[in-house]
Fold each of these.
Amino acid sequence: MQRHEQAVWDETGSEGYEPLLSEKDRTTVDVDYEELPDDLTRETLELPALSEPEIARHYTRLSQMNYGIDSGPYPLGSCTMKYNPKFTEDVAARTEAAVHPDRPEESVQGTLQLYHELQESLGRIGGMDAVTLQPPAGAAGEFTGILVAKAYHERNGEGERRSEVIVPSSAHGTNFASAAMAGYDVVELPGDDDGRIDLEALRSAVGEETAALMLTNPNTLGLFERDIEEIATVVHDAGGLLYYDGANLNALLGRARPGDMGFDIMHYNVHKTFATPHGGGGPGAGPIGVTEELRPFLPSPQVEARDGRYELVEPEHSIGKVHGAMGNWLVLIKTHAYIRRLGDSGLRDTSAKAVLNANYLASQIDLEIPFGPFHHEFVASAGERDAADFAKRMLDYGVHPPTTKWPEIVSEALMTEPTEAESKTTLDQLAGAFNAVASEDEETVAAAPEKTSARYIDQTSAARNPHLSWHALSDDA
Amino acid sequence: MSHHTQLSRATRTTGESTGSPFAPHSEADVETMLQAIDAESVEELFDIPSSVRFDGEFGIDAASEQEVVRQVAEVLGRNDSATEFLGRGRYDHYVPSLVDHLADRSEFLTSYTQYQPEITQGFLQALFEYQSLLVELTGLEVANCSMYDAATALGEVATLSQRVRSVTGDRVLVPDVLRDERRAVLENYVSGASLAVEEYPTTDGVVEPDALEDVLDGDVALVYVENPTTTGLIQEHLEEIGEHLAEADAMFCLGSDPVALSLLRTPASIGADAVIGDASVLGLGTAYGTSLGLFACKEEYLRQVPGRLVGASQDESGHRAYTLTLQTREQHIRRERATSNICTNQAWVALRTAIHAAVLGPDGLVDLAKNCHRLPEALARELDEIEGIAAPVRDGYHFREFRASVEPDVADLVSELYAEGFAVHATDADTIQICVTDANENQAEELVAAIEEVVA
Amino acid sequence: MEFEIPSELRYAESHEWADDRSETVRVGISDFAQDELGDIVFVDLPSEGEGVGEGEEFGVLESIKAVSDIYTPVAGTIVATNEDVIDNPELVNEDPYGSGWLVEVEPEGELDHLLDASEYQEMI
């Protein structure tokens, strides 16, 4: 078993934590500026005034109190935490990439060419006819896709009538929220006993109010919706559109494409499938792909190639904009570089190893896994154990735990996605951590974690008495 | 991890085109793993009906790292090199080297959202410090740890105004000079919320309190005012504007950025209820629009705030510890009733912004902001000396940028300047807009010379 | 696990209790319900004077990981809300039938449709 202990920085007097910058120094500056009238300027500014060496040490210590994919395995289900190739950072950091977004199109032909090439390659990977790179995250992609569906129905004179978006109960929370933000009533579709879409339930849910069905495939249990063509027929016959949530696309790279399954709209989570770093919560990017029929509704502008030049074009019935510029460009460059590096063979190998890794890891774990055959991820049950406690104890073994307590169809769920980037050796270690926790007594598990920078954190008092800034902390002290 | 596997892996080439260079499996590993799961081949693990299987090619050739780096560099090299004097909502300031070196530490860069706070204290503390920075700059009690950009933050504040306002009313008022992009994003964000976006008139981009008061009524949910304005002026009479909006019971949202806020009146002191803007003016620069949406508001809206919040708490040993908090607002718990659909955000940019602010410190921030006032005033005075140019268009106090009236045709002027290697905005038929900060001031004299030459 | 179910109260299937022993009906959530929710961190209650229909949602209880609507077991007008639980949400966990009560309703309808203690015990 791997030994691991995360850094703790306990400066004299700070009682077990790295002090805030504001606890190291707080300097109040009088904002005197004779060139502006007093009523236009602030009076004071109170912030830490520290030297560069002190700041370097502060953030280095904070980084040591943080766990990234380079620290160890990160098998969060539906999050696809895979290795982020470093060269993509260098590519994104090139100064030619950092132009102002108001530069005229003729002066940024290089940027637009990369942008166009990525639109094209994502289209081919997803089997979609047109792609916009503008949405800055997966949820933003969902919102954009649903706005496209809405614009399409409105164009057909069915905007009023089609007021519902159907979402399976096991879907990501963003699906519900994105549909609601676009003004739709959300209809929740219960799952089948075998963890898939219940066709009968779907048939009774769809109708002339249906604007779209949002679906993840493979679903959150890792299962492929085998009836996908029938599902598409049911939705299309009712006049609705089929939306693909790309969170689990890693399982299908080069083997099946949403466009070929009958999906009309899809989003790509490039910070999952295409290895751009998650950055502790972002930035990601959530491009969407659509069928030819929906191309005219895409956000503005699209990049088009004409006679060897790249142009910014407003689609005929564009929904407008979903980001103030062209999306998270720095993330998109990394996506482009990753796809080019892998090529067809690498992409296809990615899904192969991702699915092999999930199946192998599952076979090495002494926990019940009620649903299969799964692909890139599986959902194990912690059984009598509380999945959240189980996860906390896994931290002590130097691995990041899976996603917990979701999807709800599996009791005390541990939703696990190892990705292709883990070696057999690491998977064995990970399995060792699962099995060690499973065999430990309740007391040990409940006392966890012990090897992390912080012990078990009291979330309840954090929510009851929110302290959201150093100001709030010192007010209460 | 045993040395044996390390060595066997080292014998593999990493540039081969037969598989992913980032999947560390030897052939022997694959065999062993297949045996363990009782499978003949990886192919049989895919439970996909043959009718939807993809057997084609994408036509994307694999390439070595060196080749990809070369290709991308070559393509990006097709961008013209120009000295940018561009602004209008997106600004460059010099980003200290330390920002890259610290933010690129892979423990930060390659980590996920902090759903397991015990093992991600470092990032949580950095985000808590980012929130604190914004609380200090805005004077408001709550700041989230990020929206995508200023445009989407404006959209979020509009829907917030609808949720928290006690009386009904669907009017969202924005200045007539608001950037088209921000307006277009806002329109989409309110499309599901039965709010209507309307312009209110400004004079050269500046809000006149009386003109604004004329368009207020009980149906106004939100008024958005920018300081500095899109046209580069420091907005005056903000206190009076705040009073009018309070009387009308409309939410007052100020648009600004961390550099401007280091010098200008705090939003709280002029009655603003919320602040949005582009916080990546510190830490990132213009980056072709990759950004960081600033979002701060009064504490009374806390339960309605969109996005992530980090709170301070304690761990079991009684030590200070940080955690994501009030998550019941968010989509993964409240689903269609969440305050927003946002999940992945711009956390890493927020880290960069926090580090940049820390490097500058309070004195450095105030000095940078003062410079943002002096530079455009000085450059405008110089341009005003040139025959055929009147700058600035409007008297007032400028911040980073200003507009200039020009006698020659604006489109011609801008493209001729471009040919000389300078990018400036064409704002309308008679005016150009020029943005000058520490990032391009060393080229300002050359710009003046180029303008002089082109105009002559 | 044994949950306290006072016999003098009436219960809704959605786990609220109603106490109609005085003129106004006091409403809270059951011991079982508070246990299911876990540590309650936030309570949102309606304003006094608001009218509520039977089975209508009138407030929200939040724990760390869940949000739960609360429904009025009886139609009427809200005449009092428990300010203490707004400041100290833990009262709902600690004393769900006592200091953790939520609102008082001046009833317009009957309480006959509610379960008695033994029926509620059966249900959970």
Amino acid sequence: MGTPDQPSLDEIIRICSQVRWATRLKEWRYKDVEYEGEVYTRGDMLPAALAHLLKRVHIDGDLPPDTTLEQYNELIRNLVTSSSSWVYGFLYHNLHPQWGFYDPKTGWVAAFDAITGEVQTALIAGEKEQFFTKYPHVRLR
Amino acid sequence: MKVDGIVWQKPVKPSPRSAEENLQDFPNLVRKYRGRVLFVKDSGLEATEIPVFRDRIQSAIDAYGWDHPVIAPFRQQIEETDELLRGEYGRLLVREMDVDYPRLRELYEPPPSHWWWYLDKLARVPDRKVVAVVVPFNEREIEKLYEIVDEDDRDNALEFLKSSVYAKIVT
């Protein structure tokens, strides 16, 4: 990356640090959960960012229950901008270019669509850097 | 591999975690496995974690058994989630999430018994209703079954039943 067609590392970090979420809604398919006084039940349609946050809190258990969307986005931004994060480009199923960030201290990863710049998934901690390296990949930092 | 002027490194086969690590992480693994299955439509990237988490669960079960005090409380939840994945959710995953199972199998080299890596193949099996299950236990029962098979098919039917642990009769 860094060619005329591909953004530089600084540009990738700038785009991803905006933490832009897709506008489509996601269906909540788990037990009832509460966020800022609102109870969400199975079948409710949630904004993508909130759905991802609630999954990280209530399913993965990797974030405390009182984490707000603002805090979640800030944690993602910190992961993207931290100089200690590893940065990858990878091809989801050989076709769809993505950018990935991995913090070796926390084990967290975040992935962004390289075409739209939108968050694909953020702050999951299952596979560490293997989340990216199981695809064709290039480490950018 | 060169795509769009970038030299991509080949996928790296992930190193498996030890059964001990998986046991320590067991409740967490089960919760994540169930969550990834329930939310299969959310993210293809997250959906590719499903077989990885299920492998880790199986590694602990294989090493310590279902009766281990850490594992036993989760048996029902794992089996229910497996059922979802083998059925509606697995088909949804294959149909809508574009997970490249052949490529993942090439990378992870899972054994055939780990069916969660073969959802694309399972999805191709027609969704038939099981109306009866025949379980031949011994020669006498096989002989009884032999009696009810049409005369023209007796030889084939007997050979089939003798070599089967069970046979499903489907419509």
